Amino acid sequence: MGKLLRINTKEKTFEFEDVSEAYAGLGGRALTSRMILDEVPATCHPLGKFNKLIFSPGLLTGSPAANSGRLSAGGKSPLTGGIKESNAGGYASQKLAKLGITGLVLEDKPEGNDFSIIVINNDGVEILPAGDLAGKGNYAVMESLWEKYGKNVAVLSIGQAGEQCLKGASIQQADMNGRPGRAHGRGGLGAVMGSKKIKAIVVDDKGAPRIEIKDPDAFKAANKRWVDMLKSHPVSGQGLPAFGTAVLVNVINEAGALPTKNFRSGRFEHAQDISGEKMAELIEQRGGITTEGCHPGCVIKCSNVYHDKDGKVLTTGFEYETIWAFGAHTTIHELDDIAMLDRLCDDFGLDTIEMGVTIGIAMEGGMIPWGDGKAAIALLSKVGDYAPEGKIIGNGAGFTGDALGVDRVPVVKNQAFPAYDPRSCKGVGVTYATTPMGADHTAGYGVTANILSVGGTIDPLKKQGNIELSQNLQVATAAIDAAGLCLFIAFAVLDNEDGVQTIVDMLNAKYELKLTPDDVVALGKSILNNEKEFNRRAGFTKIDDQLPEMFKETFPPHNTTWDFTSEELSKTLSF
Amino acid sequence: MGKLLRINTKEKTFEFEDVSEAYAGLGGRALTSRMILDEVPATCHPLGKFNKLIFSPGLLTGSPAANSGRLSAGGKSPLTGGIKESNAGGYASQKLAKLGITGLVLEDKPEGNDFSIIVINNDGVEILPAGDLAGKGNYAVMESLWEKYGKNVAVLSIGQAGEQCLKGASIQQADMNGRPGRAHGRGGLGAVMGSKKIKAIVVDDKGAPRIEIKDPDAFKAANKRWVDMLKSHPVSGQGLPAFGTAVLVNVINEAGALPTKNFRSGRFEHAQDISGEKMAELIEQRGGITTEGCHPGCVIKCSNVYHDKDGKVLTTGFEYETIWAFGAHTTIHELDDIAMLDRLCDDFGLDTIEMGVTIGIAMEGGMIPWGDGKAAIALLSKVGDYAPEGKIIGNGAGFTGDALGVDRVPVVKNQAFPAYDPRSCKGVGVTYATTPMGADHTAGYGVTANILSVGGTIDPLKKQGNIELSQNLQVATAAIDAAGLCLFIAFAVLDNEDGVQTIVDMLNAKYELKLTPDDVVALGKSILNNEKEFNRRAGFTKIDDQLPEMFKETFPPHNTTWDFTSEELSKTLSF
Fold this sequence. Notes:
The structure is a homodimer of 575-residue chains. The first copy, chain A, is of the alpha+beta class and 575 residues long.
């Protein structure tokens, strides 16, 4: 059983604490959401001293289980005003797990404007002045910290956006080359870290013992089945490694669900220019990397390194949702411009989905012209300049819509929609509406059965079956996030009868438990119930579980509308 | 019985409609709130086509009843997301009443960026292009419309803030000199008018018949008692006429309830420099006007005309809450700077309370220095420039707090607090928390019994009696707003056993009714119930009926805190 590391950011003190009964056996999203419900007053100001920022490795993290290296970050979201869990790859999760830290909890809030960094290693914890790191972007911060602490440390940091406490602010993680390619993107948790004046967290597991596995043989056997399962599925074994997640541009466009020009149509005439195929071609021409994992032990390797025309690294971890948000949504179709926008987000520490949607809203409001990549780059750069435009844009789509008087703003709970139109992919639409997280595809990725024919087939254009689809996926995803597993394992699990059992076998072997698949379902439900309860205490009602009125518009090419009633939607997470 | 005038702002058409059974006998806030509940979907976007902007004269408006010329404006508020009624003096209410218009309803929303004006007279309605009025401030708009339509017309208009659909935008009314001194200030209804692309409304009652009074003798007798009552009360008969509402600066400062430097203390060391006494002295020195009514038939005359050092008109309708917001709250203590800020608000069309509090938040967030009047003027001017800073500031205190990452923001339902600290004047604090309007002193002015010893005495520093005080005042105020009466009649009514009966007598004489004081109470309660129901449908819960966490801080000089529980507060409007 690990420890909780609590850091008081005002007093600059820390304490290791035994995991209490209430938190025993929890990890990842299960722990962060439980702790937030128990310890954070739901009505507190997200940037005030009563909010907490909690990091937790998953239950399998640090073990050799393939694709188990995800880290959950949780807190009350400055963007949504509700509970938030945002997870990312990178190295920090496995290193925290190896140091025996089940939860890293940032508490209270200092006065004044001085930033600190936190250094955690096998000898203990130091809280040090950030010095000249303050004001710097994540590229420079990570380079500087690797120089000082060596290339084997994990780094979590915020850029200028988090320092300004903007609602779009992410917490970035260093990838294997020390670049800020991994993001706890959604929900503005970078602003919570900024409010606590923590610029970066360095995690060094040198000297830490191996993670204990109670039954190594059983674990090894289960993990072998696990790896085979992941590698043999066409999505996780072929599509994602070859083209990254951007393989979806053509797929979703073909399905008529690629939201174009602020959700006016499901087909983008320039989809080919921003497709995964086009991206892979450019990466190969220019000497980048098409296939890279986000953490050690990943066997899917959907990440990449994208070079510019001169063969220099332009951005990394260049993903479908990013390309959609800055691309089809804004009608920008120059992939190098989109890559530059992705780089700026990584550097300033901003969620790419929120920012891409926001740029589209800025276009809708007449701030810059539709489809103008250079204007978008100039506008986004204002965040790094601490300029007033940046304080608008950096606060996200809802905020920018309000600043500009735009009434077509695709947000739920003030969080921007991701890359799938809810009228042409109703399963994911149900998730947008009902997840406690705000519009979020990862919370229950209905694209599976709606479009990819994974885990069955459910008509994406009709209501039937989509409430149940979203419910099942939301429950499963919560459990996956608690285990520390990458969401992309779901493709194989959904298409494999032995999938859930294999995960259960690994958990049982690691902890000497006797869990069944039913226990995993129960864990998922309990996580969602905790999250719903926090939101209820924060003032959310079923009114907040609806899509905005713009989705009453008829959506080409299928000419569908959003037609779920509030009553229907309220069944999704009723258990 | 009057008519409803419905104007479709998209089609540029209008229709006179008989008042239906549901709306019969309603006027002012009673009509606007009922219509919004019945006709506006509570979850609609406030700037979208489903919102409506409704103007309604009160039940006594247009009659000779003293102080009965107030106009209610209602809609779904862009600032709070809930229902809103904002009322003002000026000439429009009496002229609409004389034209037989019980409700003027702006519906739908045009595409494109062209503004229109609406001209209403005894011959009908015209909807005309706004031409070069678009982009202009209210001073220029009103001057131009008086030039074109004569000095006997009423004008309602929006400035640059309303055109930009900013949440702080007001609708201004021309005063008797054609200056935009009267404001439907609170709740951003100017943005709703802007979203419907209506720049101004001209109301000309030339040729309209007199308002019918069913029993003229009874009416005359009641109105005589009414005028005597108002003139003989020390507040409405002496304090307000002599010094305007700014008489309160010294009173509230003395009571330790003048929120200073963003609600850090209840006493302002420079209170004397911004007091009503100082203001009256300067007005007299410079040749302004200390005593002026906001509409014909006013016998209190709390308004004024404030001149600059050179004897030219600087601003009009210069009020206590404005002086507090731009003064003690920001620590600016140069009255001429504060007057200039008031003028800018009138000209751009902005709520002075919201803007003053916002300037303080901009200071809290480091955007400009504390107490710097010239910097505040420069910052507020950005609204008129359509600059990004203006799009932040003009959206109010909550928005600006979010833009700057400030966690001490005095708002309820996202509307900024007025000029009385809830810890030193708990009766008005209960109103801030519980009125459906968002933090608003006029919704239930507990300052009466808490500080002014009007209508009894209730300790402002303790909880006891303040829930009941706020309840009674909120019910009474809703009825006053339905009658079209000025709120300041309440001083005399609260201290006079014959007060309510006199109002009832005037209503009965005007309409040939047999109302009793109980009917007036029932009307007030039904208005509040309609407003609460709209907010409930919009997603509000008792969580929204609380003060922000900054009011847990101990407040000097009385060292009190805000200590009402959510349960206690929820009793306030339970009937």
